[in-house]
Amino acid sequence: MSEIDVHKIRELDPPQRVLMGPGPSNVHPRVYKALSMPIIGHLDPRFLQIMDEVQALLRWVFQTTNRFTLAMPGTGSSGMEATFVNTVEPGDTVIIGINGVFGNRMADIVERCGGNVIRVEAPWGQIVDPQRLEDAFNQANTPIKALAIVHAETSTGVRQPIEELGALCHQHDALFIVDAVTSLAGIELKVDEWEIDVCYSGTQKCLSCPPGLAPITFSDRAIEIVRNRSSKVQSWYLDLNMILNYWEDKSRAYHHTAPINMFYALREALRLVQEDTLERRHHIHRRQSNKFLMGCEDLGLEFFIEEEEYRLPMLNVIRIPDHVHDLAARQTLLLDYNLEIGAGLGELAGKVWRVGLMGETAKYANVVYLLEMLEPLIQHK
Ligand SMILES: *Cc1c(COP(=O)(O)O)cnc(C)c1O
Predict the structure, then answer these.
(1) Rounded to the nearest whole angstrom, what is the distance from the C-alpha of residue 181 to the centroid of ligand 1?
(2) How many Å lie between the centroid of ligand 1 and the Cα of residue 203?
(3) 77 CB under 6 A from ligand 1?
(4) What are the φ/ψ torsions at residue 170 (nearest 5 degrees)?
(5) Is the peptide bond before 24 cis (omega within 30 degrees of 0)?
(6) For a disulfide at 200, which of 46, 51, 156, 216, Cβ 3.0-4.6 Å?
Protein backbone atom coordinates (compact mmCIF):
# COMPACT_ATOMS: atom_id res chain seq x y z
CA MET A 1 0.00 0.00 0.00
CA SER A 2 1.36 3.43 -0.90
CA GLU A 3 1.47 5.99 1.89
CA ILE A 4 -0.18 9.24 0.81
CA ASP A 5 0.85 12.40 2.60
CA VAL A 6 -2.41 14.39 2.65
CA HIS A 7 -0.53 17.66 2.76
CA LYS A 8 1.03 16.91 -0.60
CA ILE A 9 -2.21 16.22 -2.48
CA ARG A 10 -2.26 18.82 -5.22
CA GLU A 11 -4.90 20.36 -7.44
CA LEU A 12 -6.89 17.80 -9.41
CA ASP A 13 -5.48 17.16 -12.88
CA PRO A 14 -7.10 14.13 -14.53
CA PRO A 15 -5.68 13.34 -17.98
CA GLN A 16 -7.78 13.86 -21.10
CA ARG A 17 -8.52 10.37 -22.38
CA VAL A 18 -10.32 9.06 -25.41
CA LEU A 19 -12.78 6.69 -23.78
CA MET A 20 -13.32 3.78 -26.15
CA GLY A 21 -14.24 1.20 -23.57
CA PRO A 22 -17.65 -0.12 -22.45
CA GLY A 23 -18.42 3.18 -20.68
CA PRO A 24 -17.97 5.81 -19.44
CA SER A 25 -17.91 7.47 -22.83
CA ASN A 26 -16.59 10.95 -23.58
CA VAL A 27 -18.61 13.90 -22.32
CA HIS A 28 -19.63 16.95 -24.35
CA PRO A 29 -18.43 20.35 -23.01
CA ARG A 30 -22.04 21.46 -22.62
CA VAL A 31 -22.63 18.62 -20.17
CA TYR A 32 -19.54 19.55 -18.13
CA LYS A 33 -20.79 23.11 -18.07
CA ALA A 34 -24.23 22.01 -16.86
CA LEU A 35 -22.60 19.99 -14.05
CA SER A 36 -20.86 23.07 -12.72
CA MET A 37 -23.98 25.27 -12.57
CA PRO A 38 -25.08 26.59 -9.16
CA ILE A 39 -26.70 24.04 -6.93
CA ILE A 40 -30.23 24.69 -5.66
CA GLY A 41 -32.39 22.81 -3.18
CA HIS A 42 -34.04 19.53 -4.16
CA LEU A 43 -37.45 21.01 -3.28
CA ASP A 44 -36.81 24.38 -4.96
CA PRO A 45 -39.60 25.10 -7.45
CA ARG A 46 -37.01 25.57 -10.22
CA PHE A 47 -35.50 22.18 -9.44
CA LEU A 48 -38.93 20.53 -9.49
CA GLN A 49 -39.37 22.06 -12.93
CA ILE A 50 -36.00 20.66 -14.01
CA MET A 51 -37.11 17.20 -12.81
CA ASP A 52 -40.23 17.54 -14.93
CA GLU A 53 -38.13 18.52 -17.93
CA VAL A 54 -35.81 15.55 -17.40
CA GLN A 55 -38.88 13.33 -17.15
CA ALA A 56 -40.26 14.64 -20.44
CA LEU A 57 -36.89 14.11 -22.15
CA LEU A 58 -36.63 10.59 -20.72
CA ARG A 59 -40.08 9.72 -22.04
CA TRP A 60 -38.93 10.90 -25.41
CA VAL A 61 -35.66 8.95 -25.40
CA PHE A 62 -37.39 5.76 -24.17
CA GLN A 63 -40.13 6.28 -26.79
CA THR A 64 -42.86 5.94 -24.21
CA THR A 65 -45.85 7.75 -22.78
CA ASN A 66 -45.37 5.99 -19.41
CA ARG A 67 -46.28 8.35 -16.62
CA PHE A 68 -43.82 6.63 -14.29
CA THR A 69 -40.58 7.59 -15.97
CA LEU A 70 -37.77 8.90 -13.82
CA ALA A 71 -34.06 8.90 -13.02
CA MET A 72 -33.03 6.87 -9.97
CA PRO A 73 -29.95 7.89 -7.97
CA GLY A 74 -26.97 5.64 -8.64
CA THR A 75 -25.51 4.09 -11.78
CA GLY A 76 -27.13 1.61 -14.18
CA SER A 77 -26.88 -1.12 -11.54
CA SER A 78 -29.20 0.87 -9.31
CA GLY A 79 -31.76 0.78 -12.13
CA MET A 80 -31.30 -2.99 -12.35
CA GLU A 81 -31.66 -3.41 -8.61
CA ALA A 82 -34.65 -1.03 -8.39
CA THR A 83 -36.39 -3.01 -11.13
CA PHE A 84 -36.24 -6.34 -9.33
CA VAL A 85 -36.58 -5.29 -5.70
CA ASN A 86 -39.82 -3.51 -6.59
CA THR A 87 -41.41 -6.10 -8.88
CA VAL A 88 -40.26 -9.42 -7.38
CA GLU A 89 -41.59 -10.82 -4.11
CA PRO A 90 -40.34 -13.92 -2.29
CA GLY A 91 -41.54 -17.06 -4.09
CA ASP A 92 -42.08 -15.35 -7.47
CA THR A 93 -40.64 -17.02 -10.57
CA VAL A 94 -38.77 -15.00 -13.20
CA ILE A 95 -37.47 -16.25 -16.55
CA ILE A 96 -34.10 -14.68 -17.38
CA GLY A 97 -32.28 -14.87 -20.69
CA ILE A 98 -28.58 -15.17 -19.90
CA ASN A 99 -25.74 -14.86 -22.39
CA GLY A 100 -23.23 -12.73 -20.53
CA VAL A 101 -22.26 -10.96 -17.32
CA PHE A 102 -25.30 -8.71 -17.01
CA GLY A 103 -27.87 -11.50 -17.42
CA ASN A 104 -26.11 -13.32 -14.60
CA ARG A 105 -26.33 -10.23 -12.43
CA MET A 106 -30.08 -9.99 -12.97
CA ALA A 107 -30.42 -13.61 -11.83
CA ASP A 108 -28.32 -12.87 -8.74
CA ILE A 109 -30.55 -9.93 -7.79
CA VAL A 110 -33.79 -11.87 -8.33
CA GLU A 111 -32.48 -14.63 -6.06
CA ARG A 112 -31.52 -12.06 -3.43
CA CYS A 113 -35.16 -10.89 -3.58
CA GLY A 114 -36.24 -14.43 -2.71
CA GLY A 115 -37.39 -15.13 -6.26
CA ASN A 116 -36.86 -18.32 -8.27
CA VAL A 117 -35.00 -17.99 -11.55
CA ILE A 118 -35.60 -20.05 -14.66
CA ARG A 119 -32.35 -19.53 -16.55
CA VAL A 120 -32.49 -19.70 -20.33
CA GLU A 121 -28.82 -19.65 -21.22
CA ALA A 122 -26.96 -19.23 -24.49
CA PRO A 123 -23.21 -19.34 -25.17
CA TRP A 124 -21.49 -15.97 -24.81
CA GLY A 125 -21.42 -14.22 -28.16
CA GLN A 126 -24.77 -15.64 -29.25
CA ILE A 127 -28.32 -14.43 -28.79
CA VAL A 128 -30.84 -16.17 -26.57
CA ASP A 129 -33.15 -17.86 -29.07
CA PRO A 130 -36.64 -16.33 -28.60
CA GLN A 131 -38.16 -19.78 -29.22
CA ARG A 132 -36.41 -21.10 -26.11
CA LEU A 133 -37.91 -18.27 -24.05
CA GLU A 134 -41.34 -19.22 -25.35
CA ASP A 135 -40.63 -22.87 -24.46
CA ALA A 136 -39.69 -21.79 -20.94
CA PHE A 137 -43.11 -20.16 -20.53
CA ASN A 138 -44.88 -23.22 -21.90
CA GLN A 139 -42.94 -25.69 -19.78
CA ALA A 140 -43.25 -23.80 -16.51
CA ASN A 141 -45.62 -25.37 -14.02
CA THR A 142 -46.00 -22.17 -12.02
CA PRO A 143 -47.14 -18.63 -12.87
CA ILE A 144 -44.31 -16.50 -14.27
CA LYS A 145 -43.96 -13.05 -12.78
CA ALA A 146 -41.67 -11.63 -15.43
CA LEU A 147 -39.27 -12.30 -18.26
CA ALA A 148 -36.05 -10.27 -18.07
CA ILE A 149 -33.39 -9.89 -20.72
CA VAL A 150 -30.46 -7.64 -21.66
CA HIS A 151 -30.99 -5.74 -24.91
CA ALA A 152 -27.33 -4.87 -25.47
CA GLU A 153 -25.08 -7.33 -23.58
CA THR A 154 -22.02 -5.17 -22.96
CA SER A 155 -19.86 -8.11 -21.88
CA THR A 156 -20.13 -9.81 -25.29
CA GLY A 157 -21.30 -7.15 -27.76
CA VAL A 158 -24.49 -9.05 -28.64
CA ARG A 159 -27.70 -7.31 -29.66
CA GLN A 160 -30.63 -9.38 -28.44
CA PRO A 161 -33.75 -9.23 -30.63
CA ILE A 162 -36.54 -8.24 -28.24
CA GLU A 163 -39.26 -6.80 -30.50
CA GLU A 164 -41.57 -9.82 -30.19
CA LEU A 165 -40.97 -10.70 -26.54
CA GLY A 166 -43.38 -8.19 -25.00
CA ALA A 167 -46.38 -9.78 -26.71
CA LEU A 168 -45.17 -13.22 -25.57
CA CYS A 169 -44.94 -12.04 -21.95
CA HIS A 170 -48.39 -10.51 -22.02
CA GLN A 171 -49.97 -13.69 -23.43
CA HIS A 172 -48.69 -15.30 -20.24
CA ASP A 173 -49.65 -12.41 -17.98
CA ALA A 174 -46.00 -11.72 -17.13
CA LEU A 175 -44.04 -8.46 -17.06
CA PHE A 176 -41.45 -7.78 -19.74
CA ILE A 177 -38.25 -6.35 -18.23
CA VAL A 178 -35.41 -5.00 -20.38
CA ASP A 179 -31.88 -3.90 -19.47
CA ALA A 180 -31.22 -1.03 -21.86
CA VAL A 181 -28.12 0.34 -20.12
CA THR A 182 -26.01 0.22 -23.27
CA SER A 183 -28.77 0.28 -25.88
CA LEU A 184 -30.58 3.50 -24.90
CA ALA A 185 -29.79 6.14 -27.54
CA GLY A 186 -27.37 3.65 -29.11
CA ILE A 187 -29.67 1.46 -31.19
CA GLU A 188 -33.40 1.44 -31.81
CA LEU A 189 -35.38 0.95 -28.61
CA LYS A 190 -39.17 1.43 -28.48
CA VAL A 191 -40.55 0.87 -25.02
CA ASP A 192 -44.24 1.30 -25.90
CA GLU A 193 -44.25 -0.31 -29.32
CA TRP A 194 -42.36 -3.33 -28.00
CA GLU A 195 -44.61 -3.60 -24.93
CA ILE A 196 -41.78 -3.29 -22.39
CA ASP A 197 -43.04 -2.98 -18.81
CA VAL A 198 -39.84 -1.98 -17.05
CA CYS A 199 -36.84 -0.59 -18.88
CA TYR A 200 -33.77 0.79 -17.11
CA SER A 201 -30.57 2.40 -18.31
CA GLY A 202 -27.52 4.35 -17.18
CA THR A 203 -26.10 7.72 -18.07
CA GLN A 204 -22.46 7.00 -18.98
CA LYS A 205 -22.92 4.83 -22.03
CA CYS A 206 -24.65 6.14 -25.15
CA LEU A 207 -26.05 9.22 -23.36
CA SER A 208 -22.44 10.40 -22.85
CA CYS A 209 -23.09 11.83 -19.41
CA PRO A 210 -20.96 11.05 -16.33
CA PRO A 211 -22.18 8.03 -14.31
CA GLY A 212 -24.60 8.74 -11.48
CA LEU A 213 -28.23 8.30 -12.50
CA ALA A 214 -30.32 5.42 -13.77
CA PRO A 215 -33.11 6.44 -16.18
CA ILE A 216 -36.02 4.04 -15.72
CA THR A 217 -39.60 3.70 -16.92
CA PHE A 218 -42.53 1.60 -15.68
CA SER A 219 -45.75 0.72 -17.49
CA ASP A 220 -49.04 1.07 -15.61
CA ARG A 221 -49.14 -2.73 -15.41
CA ALA A 222 -45.78 -2.76 -13.62
CA ILE A 223 -46.77 0.05 -11.26
CA GLU A 224 -49.93 -1.77 -10.30
CA ILE A 225 -47.80 -4.74 -9.27
CA VAL A 226 -45.48 -2.52 -7.25
CA ARG A 227 -48.41 -0.80 -5.55
CA ASN A 228 -50.18 -4.06 -4.68
CA ARG A 229 -47.28 -6.03 -3.22
CA SER A 230 -48.07 -8.16 -0.22
CA SER A 231 -44.60 -7.65 1.26
CA LYS A 232 -42.64 -4.43 1.76
CA VAL A 233 -39.84 -3.69 -0.72
CA GLN A 234 -36.77 -4.85 1.21
CA SER A 235 -34.64 -1.92 0.00
CA TRP A 236 -35.64 1.30 1.68
CA TYR A 237 -33.59 3.48 -0.67
CA LEU A 238 -34.94 2.00 -3.89
CA ASP A 239 -38.57 1.60 -2.81
CA LEU A 240 -40.53 3.03 -5.69
CA ASN A 241 -43.62 3.56 -3.60
CA MET A 242 -41.74 6.21 -1.62
CA ILE A 243 -39.71 7.58 -4.52
CA LEU A 244 -42.87 8.17 -6.53
CA ASN A 245 -44.20 10.29 -3.72
CA TYR A 246 -41.28 12.62 -4.36
CA TRP A 247 -41.68 12.62 -8.15
CA GLU A 248 -45.43 12.42 -8.43
CA ASP A 249 -47.08 13.73 -5.32
CA LYS A 250 -48.25 17.32 -5.16
CA SER A 251 -46.61 17.55 -1.75
CA ARG A 252 -43.27 16.34 -3.25
CA ALA A 253 -42.50 14.48 -0.02
CA TYR A 254 -38.82 14.31 0.83
CA HIS A 255 -37.34 10.82 0.45
CA HIS A 256 -33.68 11.33 -0.44
CA THR A 257 -31.79 14.37 -1.70
CA ALA A 258 -31.78 14.18 -5.49
CA PRO A 259 -28.25 14.45 -6.95
CA ILE A 260 -29.05 17.94 -8.25
CA ASN A 261 -26.10 18.60 -10.54
CA MET A 262 -26.35 15.14 -12.07
CA PHE A 263 -29.85 16.11 -13.13
CA TYR A 264 -28.43 19.22 -14.81
CA ALA A 265 -25.94 17.02 -16.63
CA LEU A 266 -28.49 14.44 -17.71
CA ARG A 267 -30.84 17.17 -18.91
CA GLU A 268 -28.11 18.63 -21.11
CA ALA A 269 -26.99 15.22 -22.39
CA LEU A 270 -30.58 14.41 -23.38
CA ARG A 271 -30.96 17.79 -25.06
CA LEU A 272 -27.86 17.04 -27.13
CA VAL A 273 -29.32 13.71 -28.24
CA GLN A 274 -32.57 15.42 -29.08
CA GLU A 275 -30.87 18.11 -31.16
CA ASP A 276 -29.10 15.36 -33.08
CA THR A 277 -32.23 13.14 -33.24
CA LEU A 278 -32.27 9.49 -32.23
CA GLU A 279 -32.18 8.29 -35.83
CA ARG A 280 -29.01 10.24 -36.50
CA ARG A 281 -27.33 8.94 -33.34
CA HIS A 282 -28.16 5.36 -34.37
CA HIS A 283 -26.83 6.05 -37.83
CA ILE A 284 -23.57 7.53 -36.48
CA HIS A 285 -22.99 4.46 -34.30
CA ARG A 286 -23.49 2.13 -37.26
CA ARG A 287 -21.35 4.23 -39.56
CA GLN A 288 -18.36 4.56 -37.22
CA SER A 289 -18.63 0.90 -36.23
CA ASN A 290 -18.49 -0.13 -39.90
CA LYS A 291 -15.40 2.01 -40.40
CA PHE A 292 -13.76 0.53 -37.34
CA LEU A 293 -14.55 -3.06 -38.33
CA MET A 294 -13.26 -2.48 -41.86
CA GLY A 295 -10.03 -1.17 -40.35
CA CYS A 296 -9.81 -4.23 -38.10
CA GLU A 297 -10.20 -6.52 -41.09
CA ASP A 298 -7.31 -4.71 -42.79
CA LEU A 299 -5.21 -5.35 -39.69
CA GLY A 300 -6.18 -9.01 -39.71
CA LEU A 301 -8.18 -8.81 -36.49
CA GLU A 302 -11.10 -11.20 -36.00
CA PHE A 303 -14.55 -10.31 -34.71
CA PHE A 304 -15.89 -12.16 -31.72
CA ILE A 305 -19.49 -12.29 -32.95
CA GLU A 306 -19.97 -14.21 -36.14
CA GLU A 307 -23.42 -13.06 -37.15
CA GLU A 308 -23.24 -9.47 -38.31
CA GLU A 309 -26.91 -8.91 -37.65
CA TYR A 310 -26.43 -9.38 -33.89
CA ARG A 311 -23.35 -7.16 -33.46
CA LEU A 312 -23.74 -4.00 -31.42
CA PRO A 313 -22.42 -0.98 -33.33
CA MET A 314 -21.55 0.92 -30.16
CA LEU A 315 -19.65 -1.98 -28.60
CA ASN A 316 -17.33 -3.82 -30.94
CA VAL A 317 -15.75 -6.99 -29.66
CA ILE A 318 -12.58 -8.24 -31.30
CA ARG A 319 -10.41 -11.26 -30.54
CA ILE A 320 -6.95 -10.55 -29.16
CA PRO A 321 -4.41 -12.26 -31.46
CA ASP A 322 -2.57 -15.12 -29.68
CA HIS A 323 0.82 -13.45 -29.86
CA VAL A 324 -0.37 -10.17 -28.28
CA HIS A 325 -0.14 -9.51 -24.55
CA ASP A 326 -3.56 -8.17 -23.51
CA LEU A 327 -2.63 -6.04 -20.51
CA ALA A 328 0.62 -4.68 -21.99
CA ALA A 329 -1.16 -3.56 -25.15
CA ARG A 330 -4.00 -1.88 -23.27
CA GLN A 331 -1.54 -0.15 -20.97
CA THR A 332 0.43 1.21 -23.89
CA LEU A 333 -2.78 2.55 -25.40
CA LEU A 334 -3.83 4.13 -22.12
CA LEU A 335 -0.59 5.50 -20.77
CA ASP A 336 1.22 6.40 -23.99
CA TYR A 337 -1.73 7.40 -26.16
CA ASN A 338 -4.45 8.36 -23.64
CA LEU A 339 -6.76 5.84 -25.22
CA GLU A 340 -8.91 3.50 -23.18
CA ILE A 341 -10.37 0.31 -24.59
CA GLY A 342 -12.23 -2.35 -22.63
CA ALA A 343 -10.84 -5.68 -21.45
CA GLY A 344 -12.79 -8.92 -21.72
CA LEU A 345 -15.14 -9.58 -18.80
CA GLY A 346 -15.76 -12.88 -17.04
CA GLU A 347 -15.01 -15.87 -19.25
CA LEU A 348 -13.78 -13.55 -22.02
CA ALA A 349 -11.00 -12.01 -19.89
CA GLY A 350 -7.74 -12.06 -21.83
CA LYS A 351 -9.51 -13.24 -24.99
CA VAL A 352 -11.19 -10.15 -26.39
CA TRP A 353 -11.11 -6.38 -26.40
CA ARG A 354 -14.30 -4.37 -26.22
CA VAL A 355 -14.17 -1.19 -28.22
CA GLY A 356 -16.88 1.30 -27.37
CA LEU A 357 -18.11 3.86 -29.86
CA MET A 358 -20.79 5.36 -27.67
CA GLY A 359 -22.37 8.78 -28.09
CA GLU A 360 -19.72 11.50 -28.10
CA THR A 361 -16.97 8.91 -28.60
CA ALA A 362 -18.43 7.74 -31.92
CA LYS A 363 -16.28 9.99 -34.10
CA TYR A 364 -14.25 9.12 -37.17
CA ALA A 365 -11.17 10.82 -35.70
CA ASN A 366 -11.29 8.42 -32.74
CA VAL A 367 -11.71 5.39 -35.00
CA VAL A 368 -8.69 6.40 -37.08
CA TYR A 369 -6.61 7.19 -33.99
CA LEU A 370 -7.30 3.80 -32.40
CA LEU A 371 -6.58 1.89 -35.61
CA GLU A 372 -3.29 3.78 -36.05
CA MET A 373 -2.22 3.09 -32.49
CA LEU A 374 -3.29 -0.56 -32.61
CA GLU A 375 -1.36 -1.42 -35.73
CA PRO A 376 2.16 -1.56 -34.25
CA LEU A 377 0.86 -3.26 -31.10
CA ILE A 378 -0.59 -6.27 -32.86
CA GLN A 379 2.22 -6.83 -35.34
CA HIS A 380 4.14 -10.09 -35.11
CA LYS A 381 7.41 -9.41 -33.36
C1 LIG B 1 -22.88 -0.99 -17.66
C2 LIG B 1 -24.02 -1.92 -17.59
C3 LIG B 1 -24.74 -2.15 -16.41
C4 LIG B 1 -24.35 -1.57 -15.10
O5 LIG B 1 -24.31 -0.21 -15.10
P6 LIG B 1 -23.34 0.59 -14.09
O7 LIG B 1 -23.58 1.98 -14.51
O8 LIG B 1 -21.96 0.10 -14.31
O9 LIG B 1 -23.82 0.33 -12.71
C10 LIG B 1 -25.84 -2.99 -16.47
N11 LIG B 1 -26.21 -3.59 -17.61
C12 LIG B 1 -25.53 -3.41 -18.76
C13 LIG B 1 -25.98 -4.10 -20.00
C14 LIG B 1 -24.42 -2.58 -18.78
O15 LIG B 1 -23.75 -2.40 -19.92
Answers:
(1) 6
(2) 10
(3) yes
(4) -75, -25
(5) yes
(6) 216
Mutation to probe ligand 1, out of 96, 98, 102 (largest number of atoms < 8 A from CB): 102
pLDDT computed for residue 252 by the predictor: 79
- Ligand 1, closest atom to CA 74? 9
Q: Indicate whether 311 pLDDT > 80.
A: yes
pTM (2 decimals)? Answer: 0.97
Q: Whose CA is nearest to atom 6 of ligand 1?
A: 76
Say how many Å lie between the first and final Cα of the chain, rounded: 35
Residue 150 CB less than 6 A away from ligand 1: yes
184 Cβ inside 6 Å of ligand 1: no
Q: Which domains occur in the chain, in start order? A: 6-24+277-379 (3.90.1150.10), 29-274 (3.40.640.10)
Tell me the C-alpha to C-alpha distance, in Å, between residue 172 and each of 157, 175, 247. Answer: 30, 9, 31
CB burial of 9-22 (b: ≥16 within 10 Å; e: otherwise) equals eeeeeeeeebbbbb
Q: Whose CA is nearest to atom 5 of ligand 1?
A: 76
Q: Does ligand 1 come within 6 angstroms of the Cβ of 211?
A: yes
Under the banding of pLDDT at 50, 70 and 90, the label for residue 244 is confident
Categorize the per-residue pLDDT at 381 as very low, low, confident or very high, splitting at 50, 70 and 90.
low
pLDDT band at 1; cut points 50, 70, 90: low
Torsion on CA atoms 152, 56, 359, 63, rounded to nearest 10: 40
Tell me how far the alpha carbon of residue 342 lies from the centroid of ligand 1, in angstroms: 14
DSSP secondary structure string, 218-257? E-HHHHHHHHT-SS--S-STT-HHHHHHHHT-TT---SS-
Q: Is the CB of 181 under 6 A from ligand 1?
A: yes
Count CB atoms within 10 A of the CB of residue 33.
12
pLDDT band of residue 2 (cuts 50, 70, 90) is confident
**58 and 52 in contact (C-beta within 8 Å)?**
no
Q: Is 276 helix (H, G, I), strand (E, B) or coil?
A: helix
